[in-house]
């Protein structure tokens, strides 16, 4: 029986990013494939039947009860990370699920229905641009062809990467058989803000997930020589891009509750002595009201068009992924709160597979305190005691739901 910390320690060296710090574990890259293998071994060690479904979702099955797998109780999370991410975003949910299976076994629990631990691919959308790609495929929230044609920074398609990982891309897409297996889904996740610090609690039950979307802006100008091109003769997309980044902040600051980020900006070709011909930048916008998010995007697009025109450039806006605000299943929320006497309810600004699934199956989340309040960064942290408290809370919830 391993503690959560021991399980996390066993993968602590997988996918370390020497340049960014933290971890870079892009879906189906070497690091994440190693983690997928690690999960399969840990699941098999616990007597779970390990399978990979048509969308690349990994399943560790504890087959129990007479009813087969229909309506099973499922827990789990993801193993892929953002570039330079922390050790807990995703892996805490997977390791806590494995530790919870150990605890249920130690308690002598005899499940009345099957239980599974699931690992969803491409939750971060860091390699192929669409967040929660695995759960979106499972639920049909993304068109399978569109998913197959997504490309990474090197032009590798999701279809090619899936095939290389042993998943036939021809079968990607909504999977009603697998959905029928999910009676309830409970995801444990590190908290990615300060909520539990302020509430002075180790664990909380998730209430809502803030709507969020991603757009790409491509600003095109005239690539040229940095030394021979007079300032008056330039159509420099980097100047327009800089003004767009500032416009994103001013538009978001002017809207109560809005959050907008440009975390990724890519000049093409990207030479020190080269005026860029194009600059791509990605927008992450979040607000509880999807209509407000759309209005913010419009406002930013208008400002981007003005900034580009002023620089003799043009700008193109493309939506990459969108998710509406989600409130988790109220009945399941109450069940979790009853199991965890008095655990507080907590909203989150972070997206999760549980939120994608909640449109089709009863889904819920548990959060574990992160004393730094920082995430998507190497500083993300969970105390050992809190990690164990999270796994015990998950085991309590699963036991009650079984
Ligand atoms: O971006 C998010 O909110 C999540 O961490 N994927
Ligand atoms: Mn996550
Ligand atoms: Mn994340």
Q: What do these coordinates show?
A:
Helix 3 links the parallel strand 3 and strand 4 (about 115-120). The chain is of the alpha/beta class and about 400 residues long. The protein has helices at about 5-10, 30-45, 90-105, 135-140, 145-150, 160-165, 175-180, 195-200, 235-255, 290-310, 330-340, 355, 385-400, and strands spanning about 50, 60, 70-80, 115-120, 180-190, 205-210, 210-220, 225, 260-270, 275, 280-285, 315-325, 325, 345-350, 365-370. The chain has 2 domains: about 5-210 and about 325-400, Zn peptidases (Aminopeptidase), CATH 3.40.630; about 210-325, Alpha-Beta Plaits (2-Layer Sandwich). The chain binds (2S)-amino(hydroxy)ethanoic acid and manganese (II) ion (2 copies). (2S)-amino(hydroxy)ethanoic acid (HGY) binds next to loops.
Figure out the total of helices: 13
Tell me the CATH architecture of the largest domain: 3-Layer(aba) Sandwich
Question: What number of structural domains do the residues give?
Answer: 2
Structural class: alpha/beta
Biggest sheet character: 9 strands, mixed
Helix/strand order: HHEEEHEHHHHEHEEEHEEEHEEHEHEH
The CATH class label of the largest domain is: Alpha Beta
Indicate the percent of residues in helices: 25-40%
Overall strand count: 15
Average pLDDT, rounded to a whole number, is: 97
Low-confidence stretches: none
Fill in the CATH topology of the largest domain.
Answer: Aminopeptidase
Which small-molecule ligands are present, each listed once?
(2S)-amino(hydroxy)ethanoic acid, manganese (II) ion
Q: Rg to the nearest angstrom?
A: 22 Å
Bulk shape? elongated
CATH superfamily of the largest domain: Zn peptidases
Strand content: 15-25%
């Amino acid at each position: 029986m391993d503690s959560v910390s021991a399980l996390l320690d066993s993968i602590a060296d997988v996918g370390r990013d020497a340049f960014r710090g933290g971890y870079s574990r892009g879906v189906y890259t070497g690091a994440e494939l190693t983690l997928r293998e690690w999960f399969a071994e840990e699941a098999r060690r616990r007597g779970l039947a390990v399978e990979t479904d048509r969308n690349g979702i990994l399943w560790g099955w504890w087959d129990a009860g007479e009813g087969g797998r229909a309506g099973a109780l499922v827990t789990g999370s993801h193993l892929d990370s953002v570039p330079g991410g922390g050790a807990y975003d995703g892996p805490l949910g997977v390791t806590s699920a494995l530790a919870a299976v150990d605890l249920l076994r130690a308690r002598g629990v005899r499940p009345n229905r099957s239980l599974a631990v699931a690992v969803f691919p491409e939750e971060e959308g860091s390699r192929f641009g669409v967040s929660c790609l695995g759960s979106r495929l499972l639920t049909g929230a993304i068109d399978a062809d569109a998913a197959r044609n997504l490309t990474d920074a090197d032009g590798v398609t999701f279809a090619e990467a899936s095939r290389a990982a042993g998943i036939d891309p021809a079968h990607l897409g909504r999977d009603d058989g697998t959905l029928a297996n999910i009676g309830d889904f409970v995801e444990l996740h590190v908290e990615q803000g300060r909520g539990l610090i302020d509430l002075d609690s180790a664990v909380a039950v998730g209430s809502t997930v803030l709507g969020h979307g991603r757009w790409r802006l491509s600003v095109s100008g005239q690539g040229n020589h940095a030394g021979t091109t007079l300032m008056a003769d330039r159509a420099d997309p980097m100047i327009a891009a800089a003004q767009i980044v500032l416009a994103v902040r001013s538009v978001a600051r002017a809207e109560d509750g809005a959050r907008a980020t440009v975390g990724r900006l890519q000049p093409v070709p990207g030479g020190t002595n080269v005026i860029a011909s194009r600059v791509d930048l990605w927008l992450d916008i979040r607000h509880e009201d999807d209509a407000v998010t759309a209005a913010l995007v419009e406002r930013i697009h208008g400002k981007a068009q003005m900034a580009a025109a002023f620089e003799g450039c043009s700008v193109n806006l493309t939506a990459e992924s969108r998710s509406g605000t989600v409130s988790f299943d109220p009945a399941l929320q109450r069940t979790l709160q009853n199991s965890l006497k008095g655990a507080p309810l907590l909203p989150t600004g972070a997206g999760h597979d549980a939120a994608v699934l909640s449109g089709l199956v009863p889904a819920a989340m548990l959060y574990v305190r992160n004393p730094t309040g920082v995430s998507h960064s190497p500083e993300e942290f969970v105390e050992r005691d809190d990690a164990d408290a999270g796994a015990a809370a998950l085991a309590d919830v699963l036991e009650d739901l079984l």
